[in-house]
Design a protein that fits this description.
Strand order of the largest sheet: 1-2-3-4-5-6-7-8
Distance between the termini: 71 Å
Number of domains: 3
Bound molecules: 3-methyl-2-oxobutanoic acid, zinc ion
Structural class: alpha/beta
Radius of gyration: 33 Å
CATH architecture of the largest domain: Alpha-Beta Barrel
Number of strands: 14
């Protein structure tokens, strides 16, 4: 386990420790290749399965459940290939209580076997159509057979959490007496609460020999898979059956990332895991899911937002000490972010309506931008307005806003000021009316209307008309780009205007969510440049 001095054990956690049955070491059983591949829509290729196994091995996962070899030729071949890789991780194969299943795990040359049979009344009645005694006999017969071939046998009582507790204990003791070396308690349908699951695990823990390792396998139907796994660890379990990204049947299994880091950060339980491989491994598995399952933006630890901050007050504290609002360093799980304060601000502080002056100041300073008070306030206002409209200000949006404000001609030096713009568009001929204030000595007011092929065209023509007495201009180039995707994205217009008389070309740009406003603002900026630089009007 790597050292991380940033985690502070809270006093309360230290106080409750004595009342828990925490293990000396946490083991990880990864079932991404088996339960994870049962995620609807997900199927890994042979090569991907090998690569996943190698990656899990590099991360020092203790046990890799490579597959369920009896289910298909492809699964059998993958199990066989993974067994041949010579990994340090134990490679285990799943089997039902059936000779054919066990023989396939033997044939695939796997290190160990995972045998399961259901123990809940509902499964006995509706699926297996067996009595409790018949299930006990199945356990006796097949575990004894498996024992002839494997020294490590894991037994799972499927749907354990809906099984009668004394019968569950009996099934586990039978498995152990016949050769099982480890047992697993699955919450197959994700139907138990952490408190109840902890109670159940503890009952089993107290009933079986101490040398038998207890695994827990929790499904996420109510979003409790990780919480239940942790509850299992608080009550005698020492192995977590998890999947990368929480892949698995229905709502998935307990996520490996969350389980491992909770055990590590909250309880400091020693483990073999190389935590810095966690994020790269999750990204690899995500890429193998071919876009069908993606890491959620808000997903703990590995989601895009997991180490991102928007609120100004958070940003301010983060500048002083990043640990004020982050429970662990992102580096600990392999997210490469420099610990340099400015990098943190740059890479992680999302600008939006909660952004504060400290974060903005640090960011502008880092970009080498010397804004005056007016410009600083304007940038801040733009960001907040953008955020109030429900947008997140991306890096590109941020830079466009800054560029726009910094490129503005100071109000006292402006010659052309937009007073009003009215646009009529739809199933009529687009018409625009503009009212400008133009300085030529004193300010004079100019109003003009024009029609055009679209709202932008009509507005540009109306402005050109207003400006005509000062200068005859021609729009040479007009380029509209959306800075980020979506209909609410910031638009960026770049234009080139020719002053026909002096044959001078000026180039300007502007940013706004409304493309008509964006175009008009770029044009007004251009006219100001012409008025000042070419016509020398003051
Ligand atoms: O969810 C479950 O019960 C399983 C077993 C095979 C352990 O996946
Ligand atoms: Zn499962």
């Amino acid at each position: 386990m790597e050292k991380n001095s940033n985690i502070n054990v809270s006093q309360i956690m230290a106080e409750i420790r004595d009342s828990l049955t925490l293990p000396d070491k946490a083991y990880f059983f990864d079932t991404t290749l088996r339960d994870g591949e049962q995620t609807p829509g997900i199927s890994f290729t042979h090569e991907e399965k090998k690569s996943i196994a190698q990656t899990l091995n590099e991360m020092k996962i203790d046990v890799i459940e490579a597959g369920f070899p009896v289910t298909s030729k492809g699964d059998f071949e993958a199990c066989k290939s993974i067994s041949k890789l010579g990994l340090n991780s134990e490679v285990m194969g799943l089997a039902r209580m059936a000779k054919l299943d066990i023989d396939k795990v033997i044939e695939a040359d796997m290190d160990s076997i995972h045998l399961f049979i259901a123990t809940s009344d509902i499964h006995l009645k509706s699926k297996l159509q067996m009595s409790q005694e018949e299930v006990i006999q199945q356990i006796q017969r097949h575990i004894s057979y498996a024992k002839e071939h494997f020294s490590t046998i894991l037994f799972s009582a499927e749907d354990a959490t809906r099984s009668e507790i004394n019968y569950l204990i009996r099934a586990n003791i039978t498995a152990i007496e016949n050769g099982a070396t480890r047992i697993n308690i699955p919450d197959t349908v994700g139907t138990i609460s952490p408190k109840a699951f902890g109670y159940m695990v503890n009952k089993v823990y107290k009933a079986i020999p101490k040398e038998i390792r207890i695994a827990v396998h929790c499904h996420n139907d109510f979003g409790l898979a990780v919480a239940n796994t942790i509850a299992g660890f608080e009550n005698g379990a020492s192995e977590a059956q998890t999947t990368i990204m929480g892949l698995g049947e229905r709502a998935g299994n307990a996520s490996f990332e969350e389980t491992a880091m909770s055990l590590y950060a909250l309880y400091q339980i020693p483990m073999n895991i190389i935590t810095t491989k966690i994020f790269p491994t999750a990204k690899l598995i995500e890429s193998y899911c071919g876009g069908k399952i993606k890491i959620g933006r808000l997903q703990p630890l590995i989601g895009q937002n997991a180490f991102a901050h928007e609120a100004g007050i958070h940003a301010h504290a983060m500048i002083r000490n990043a640990r004020t609002y982050e429970p662990i360093t992102p580096q600990l799980i392999g997210i490469n972010r420099s610990d340099n304060v400015i990098d943190i601000i740059e890479q992680s502080i999302k600008f939006g309506k909660h952004s504060g002056g400290h974060a903005l100041k640090a960011k502008l300073e880092d970009l080498g931008i010397n804004s005056n008070e007016h410009q600083f306030g304007k940038i801040m206002t733009h960001i907040k307005e953008f955020g109030d409209k429900g947008h997140e200000v991306s890096e590109e949006d941020f830079l466009a806003i800054v560029k726009d404000v910094m490129g503005e001609i100071p109000e006292e030096e402006q010659h052309v000021i937009l007073e009003e713009l009215t646009v009529l568009t739809g199933s009529i001929t687009p018409t625009s009316t503009v009212r400008l204030k133009i300085r030529n000595g004193d300010f004079i007011e100019k109003v003009a209307s024009s029609v055009g092929v679209g709202a932008v065209d009509a507005s540009v023509k109306a402005i050109v008309k207003c400006f005509k007495p000062m200068s005859n201009i021609k729009l040479l180039n007009f380029q509209l780009d959306a800075i980020t995707g979506g209909t609410e994205a910031l638009g960026h217009v770049t234009i080139e205007i020719l002053d026909i008389e002096s044959k001078t070309i000026v180039k300007t740009s502007a940013t706004h969510e409304d493309i008509v406003m964006c175009s008009v603002l770029a044009l007004i900026k251009g006219l100001n440049l012409i008025a000042k630089k070419i016509k020398n009007i003051d």
